[in-house]
Write a structure and sequence with these properties.
Number of helices: 43
Strand content: 5-15%
Radius of gyration: 33 Å
Number of strands: 10
Low-confidence stretches: 878-892
Structural class: mainly alpha
Shape: flat
Length: 892
């Protein structure tokens, strides 16, 4: 892996540059905890000093070298200088350093400066004071040092910066640079949390995960396999050496914290007196946190617990866990979560616990969305204590973890245990139908289970619950209009709902349906209402994390032309879902990708759709995998990565036909269409998009139909789509729908003024790529009508918009830069030719004669002022990788 790049330290490097430029500055000290990157920053500073032409040197202080006067810097001292007389000797060193070739000033790096011996410290300070030396040093926080060493970084002439751990955002930036690609958010969350932002620990965790195969790439994105992150032997040694420095009297506290943190301060004081705890805190091994009147103790770093647990014998673990459980029980287990912790400790220690305690703890674990713990507690129940309620809870936990088969087995058992018509029986039916739908069963199978339940109940309330559940399923399966009709009378407030779980299911899907049929304003209102209601009743609900209610909000805001808000809300909610490890986050990733695609940001959209695809594969969820792969291929094609697009489409085509999904099936064909367009087959691309729009129209996906028809217009079919887009814009609210219709009409009219107004409308709706295409087309139209100044102004606007589009390459951007008009047929043929297709192949693809193709090419060559296909490709700025060689003047 070599040396890692320096990330997130720009302010410190600027501070060093300022210090170096100041002739009065004598030193620059970098402080911080072990492993935060002090040495790496200091090395960068030294390299920058050398690049500036200054003489540089380096030394590393150590405990061994500190036993010998001048031991750490002996190799830097001039030969022949007598240091028996410190005053004369130090002056001689200063003269010898200044007399050497090159610049008078030296920049000297001393790593671990706090370990310097006093003689070295005094000599270095004198050299600094004479101006012969600028010291760059690193100091570990909390380490003891003598007065002579302290003098090195005292006074106004020495500047100091203190490094903190990297934030999760900086960790993401660093890992992207190291791995050469994005890392899935769950893996990022795990690595950031496990390392605590400590660069040394992060590096060893990454190396260990790579070595053991826990960290792998799927061609688009890196992801961490489920399970404990393996570190390296070096990581265990580094942490072990720090823990070994602890007072032996404090070891029991560290061991108990490794198993049971956080601890009440009083519990820690049972094992060690206050002075020992103070020493552990001073050594940076524990933290004491104050929350009002409560004091809690934790380990100073998450990895300390990993290393400590690895060294604990089984019986020692058992003693520590059972004693701590007894202590908390003796206090009355009054605090929230105490029952869950006691049950977990006893289960870990002995493999069993009181059945009633296990059930109580499972309920608590479920309500904090800790599904693995819920499963562990419920599976430990003796057979005679398993009920409909516990089987339902177990099945729901498996569902939330994406383990569909285990969920179905538990739910089938729950349904068998329940009496027909009971509340638990109906709850089982609701969860079971959702599990069937998510596990790739056809909608008809899930509806059959619901219909069977409907036939067995006569109560009006129960039948209404099943009707709401059917609405949920139909929307989830891609039938928004049908589902919306079934949810028409859903209560506006969860407080008015007879069953909060049923209400939450309906309230989650209703805003999806509203957004998909074009009612984005009402969708946003319902999404906010559902989120507030979910937060209110979360402790009593058997439904996913409240953050899932933000998924339809992202869809509604993006369709309303408010992408910045959509992305802000989505990013925040996705972080919550990652922390809860909820597999429902797959849909947030799908719609964040879609929002970025609508905004015209293919690189970011590709990253989100890659994340969605990786997660969907891991849980075998075709419903989300289908739109994720379609969008992923579209992004790759628009970015010119045609080989990747082809590979992604092969996986997409292998999915079962008729896969249901929230997004219209037509949107799943975006990748196919844009790959055809990138290869110059605009007619075939339009046909694919038109067919997809027709499918969306049948299922009532108005916004999906608009998306697809807008792309038809962008690929040369504006005249055929203008009327329908105007009709849809009349039925869809928000700013994006009318902007799309306005763009199609302007492209159809080829009117530069209208195109610029369309660019304004698209920009106002946050559609950067549409705005760039409209302004580019306007510039080309002004050029054709001999208005160079207006053309230049429009081109400038296009360039500004295009700069936000992350390198997108579309036919409209390519062909609109032509200095003369191309007909639609000429544009299509020139794109095919620029992609390396011979005239014979173009003729076959377009059902034309070779002579006709050559004639169109000759006309295009004349208009564009080119003579070869290579010049043609350069002119259109759209030659994909692997385009054919220069074929001379003949079009064929």
């Amino acid at each position: 892996m070599g040396r890692w790049p320096l990330v997130g330290r720009e302010p410190e490097l600027e501070a060093f540059a300022a210090a170096l430029a100041d002739q009065g500055c004598r030193g620059f000290v970098v402080g911080g905890a072990a492993g935060v990157g002090k040495s790496r920053l200091a090395e960068e500073c030294l390299e920058r000093a050398a690049a500036a032409g200054l003489r540089v040197g380096r030394a590393t202080a150590s405990a061994a070298a500190s036993a010998v006067p001048l031991g750490a810097i002996a190799h830097l001292l001039p030969v022949g200088v007598d240091l028996s007389d410190p005053v004369a000797g130090f002056a001689a060193v200063a003269r010898a350093l200044a007399a050497g070739p090159g610049p008078r000033r030296w920049v000297l790096l001393i790593d671990d400066m706090h370990l310097l011996d006093p003689a070295s410290a005094v000599l270095l300070r004198q050299l600094m004071d004479t101006g012969a030396l600028v010291l760059v040093g690193t100091v570990r926080s909390g380490e003891p040092y003598g007065k002579a060493v302290a003098a090195l970084w005292g006074g106004d002439a020495v500047r100091r910066v203190d490094l903190s751990a990297l934030s999760p955002q900086r960790v993401e930036e660093l890992l992207h640079a190291v791995l050469g690609g994005p890392l899935a958010r769950r893996g990022l969350h795990e690595l950031s949390a496990a390392s605590g932002g400590n660069v040394l620990y992060l590096r060893e965790l990454v190396l260990g995960a790579l070595s053991d195969g826990y960290l792998a790439e799927d061609g688009e994105i890196w992801h961490v396999r489920q399970g404990r992150l393996p570190g390296t032997a070096r990581l265990a040694e580094v942490i072990g050496s720090r823990l070994a420095n602890a007072d032996a009297a404090g070891r029991p506290v560290l061991e108990l914290l490794a198993l049971c943190e956080p601890l009440e301060l009083a519990d820690a004081e049972v094992l060690a007196p206050p002075r020992v705890l103070a020493a552990l805190e001073q050594a940076g091994l524990i933290r004491v946190l104050q929350d009002r009147r409560r004091s809690a103790v934790t380990l100073a770093h998450p990895l300390y617990g990993e290393v400590l647990r690895a060294t604990l014998p089984v019986l020692r673990r058992r003693v520590l866990l059972t004693e701590q459980a007894a202590r908390v029980e003796a206090r009355g287990a009054r605090r929230r979560g105490d029952l869950l912790r006691i049950a977990g400790w006893r289960l870990t220690a002995t493999g069993t616990a009181d059945p009633a305690l296990l059930v109580q703890a499972a309920v608590l674990a479920r309500h904090v969305h800790d599904y693995p713990q819920t499963v562990a507690l419920l599976e430990a129940l003796p057979e005679g204590h398993r009920t409909t309620a516990t089987a339902l809870m177990l099945g729901n936990a498996f569902f939330e973890m994406g383990r569909w088969e285990r969920a179905e087995a538990a739910l089938a058992r729950a349904q068998a245990l329940a009496a027909t018509g009971e509340e638990d029986w109906l709850a089982v039916v609701l969860v079971r139908t959702t599990n069937l739908l998510w596990s790739n069963a056809p909608l008809s199978v899930a509806l059959a289970v619901s219909d069977a339940a409907l036939a067995q109940t006569d109560g009006a309330g129960e039948r209404r619950k099943l009707r709401i559940n059917e609405g949920f399923m139909r929307i989830a399966a891609g039938l928004p209009a049908q589902g919306l009709a079934l949810l028409e009378d859903l209560e506006a407030d969860v407080a008015d709902a007879p069953d909060v779980n049923v209400w939450l299911r309906g309230a989650w899907m209703k805003p999806f349906a509203l957004a998909l049929v074009g009612r984005s304003g009402a969708a946003a209102v319902w999404a906010e209402r559902a989120h507030a209601g979910h937060r209110q009743v979360d402790e009593h609900a058997l439904v996913s994390h409240p953050a899932v209610q933000r998924v339809p909000l992202v869809l509604s805001l993006s369709e309303a032309g408010r992408p910045a808000e959509a992305l802000k809300e989505g990013e925040r909610a996705y972080a919550e879902l990652v922390a809860a490890d909820s597999v429902v986050r797959v849909w947030m990733a799908v719609f964040l990708g879609r929002a970025q695609w609508l905004a015209g940001h293919p690189v970011t959209a590709r990253r989100w759709w890659a994340e969605a695809a990786a997660l969907a594969r891991s849980i075998d969820h075709h419903m989300a995998l289908c739109p994720a792969l379609g969008g992923l291929a579209a992004c790759a094609a628009v970015l010119g990565d045609l080989e990747a697009a082809q590979v992604i489409l092969a996986e997409h085509r292998a999915l079962p036909a008729g896969t249901p999904g929230l997004v219209s099936a037509g949107e799943g064909r975006l990748g196919e269409a844009w790959l055809l367009a990138a290869r110059g087959h605009l007619g075939r691309a339009r046909a694919v998009l038109t067919a997809g729009a027709g499918a969306a129209r049948i299922t009532g996906h108005h916004t999906g139909e608009m998306l697809l028809l807008t792309d038809v217009a962008r690929l040369g079919g504006a005249k055929e789509t203008t009327s329908r887009l105007a009709e849809l814009a009349h039925h869809c609210d928000g700013e994006l729908a009318p902007a799309r219709a306005q763009l199609a009409a302007a492209l159809s009219a080829d009117d530069p003024g209208r195109l610029l107004r369309a660019a304004d409308a698209c920009q106002a709706a946050g559609a950067d790529l549409l705005a760039a295409e409209a302004a580019t087309a306007a510039a080309a139209a002004w050029r054709r009508t001999h208005h160079p100044r207006r053309a230049s102004a429009a081109a400038g606007r296009a360039a500004v918009a295009r700069a936000r589009c992350e390198g997108a390459r579309t036919p409209l951007l390519a062909t609109a830069v032509a200095t003369a008009a191309l007909t639609a047929r000429e544009r299509e043929i020139t794109l095919l030719a620029a992609a390396g297709n011979a005239s014979k192949d173009i003729a076959q693809a377009l059902a034309l004669s070779v002579r006709t193709v050559d004639n169109h090419l000759h006309h295009a060559y004349t208009k564009l002022g080119v003579t070869t296909r290579r010049e043609l490709a350069r002119s259109l700025a759209a030659a994909p990788p692997g385009a054919g060689p220069d074929q001379g003047h003949r079009p064929a």
